[in-house]
Write a structure and sequence with these properties.
The protein has a domain at 6-68. Helices cover 45% and strands 4% of the residues. It is built from 2 helices and 2 strands. It has helices at 6-24, 41-68; strands spanning 88-89, 102-103. Strands 1-2 form a two-stranded antiparallel ribbon. The chain is elongated, with a radius of gyration of 22 Å. The chain crosses the membrane at residues 40-58. It comes from Nocardioides pocheonensis. Residues 85-104 have a biased composition (Basic and acidic residues).
Length: 104
């Protein structure tokens, strides 16, 4: 595997750390006001972080891919999707594999 861009990996780590810090610092949002449609701040703040965390996790994923020089996620196909090359040995414990351990 080629060396990864350390700066992008650090940025990905920060993206993953932000929601952890924001939600563990409870005293910053343990209050009732401001209310949103009658819902206390404590509840809607946490619910908003569900969406923010999803966006930051996706951003971190894309940053890691960029740091590795990949344009899309590996393992996007099913097992044996690449038909070029010799058959690949499957790992032990595949209950659906009734052959001698090889798949073409």
């Amino acid at each position: 595997m080629p060396p990864a861009n350390t700066g992008l990996l650090v940025a990905a780590g920060v993206c993953l750390l932000v929601p952890v810090v924001a939600l563990m610092w409870v005293s910053s949002y343990a209050k009732e006001t401001p209310r949103l449609w009658g819902i206390p701040f404590f509840f809607w703040y946490q619910f908003a972080w569900v969406f923010v965390t999803s966006a930051l996790t996706y951003t971190a994923h894309r940053l890691v891919l960029a740091a590795r020089g990949e344009s899309e996620a590996p393992f996007s196909g099913h097992a044996g999707a690449d038909d070029d090359g010799p058959p690949r040995r499957l790992g032990h414990g595949d209950p659906g594999d009734r052959t001698d351990g090889y798949r073409s």
